[in-house]
Amino acid sequence: MKERLKHDNPQRRRPTQSRSRATSCALQETFVRLLQEQEFEQIRIRELVEVAGVGLGTFYEYFASKEELAQVCLHFRTKEILLAIQQCVVQYANQSAFDIADAIIQAKIDLHRQHPQKWGKLYLLERHLTDRLAYEKMFSRFVEVWKKGLETSSDWPTQIDAAHPAMILQASTYGIFAHRFIKANEPIDIDELTRHLTQMTHGYLRAYIR
User: Fold this and answer.
1) Where in the chain is CATH 1.10.10?
2) Could you say which of 6, 149, 158, 170 is the most buried, measured as most Cβ atoms within 10 Å of its Cβ?
3) How confident is the model at residue 7 (pLDDT cuts 50, 70, 90)?
4) Is the pLDDT of residue 79 over 50?
5) Where in the chain is the domain with CATH 1.10.357?
6) How many C-alpha atoms does 50 have within 13 Å on its Cβ side?
């Protein structure tokens, strides 16, 4: 059963001011920290607000439920990765498609390196809470970044539509990241993971670039 107050206000506070934003961030950070220590179903809102140092009523000014808080955390996780790879595409424009793919992979690796257990729990949570439409929207945004990267590279064949290759690259790299970090209870060899991802993407790109 979801924990919530009977007098819950449907008009959530938007964290536009610095203090409000800090409160929202504190709740998100606390949730992610607790998620690394226990399963999502075990986290209780009363425990969360106690650790975050805010009142129970304050929680409901920002989030309708634990599920909504989790979805916000997932949104910012996705946005963080998306922004990182968008920067790669801009920075490496007019370089080879292989260099752009390497940069995208490295940007993802850098984000995941510090807190592998956190990312593993978020990937698991994403599978439980993200509906099909939200997933498709997210996935298409990443595909568009890959597509732009290929199209702006120096060696992509202009006669080939980059949409399908971009979809394959997103699906394969996302799948490997999610699978490996969900198993974050096992040691992760970052160098080996990077090498496998690079070999996979280079092998695929060679089907188009000779």
Assistant:
1) 18-64
2) 149
3) very low
4) yes
5) 68-205
6) 6
Mean pLDDT throughout 48-73? Answer: 94
Q: With beta carbons less than 8 A apart as the criterion, state whether 43 and 34 touch.
A: yes
124 Cβ contact list (under 8 Å, min separation 6): 182
Q: Tens digits of per-residue pLDDT, 166-176?
A: 999 999 999 99
Q: Is the pTM of this model over 0.90?
A: no
Residue of 80, 82, 84, 60 whose CA lies nearest to 12: 60
How many other C-beta atoms lie within 10 A of the C-beta of residue 36? Answer: 14
Cβ pair 111, 84 in contact under 8 A: yes
Phi, psi of 54 (to 5 degrees): -130, 170
Cα Rg for the chain, rounded, in angstroms? Answer: 20
Residue with tokens 């490295």: 106
CATH of domain 68-205: 1.10.357
> d(Cα 103, Cα 99) in Å, to the nearest integer?
6
pLDDT tens for 111-141 read: 999 888 889 999 999 988 999 999 999 999 9
Q: How far apart are CA 10 and CA 162, in angstroms?
A: 44
Contacts of residue 42, Cβ cutoff 8 Å, sequence gap at least 6: none
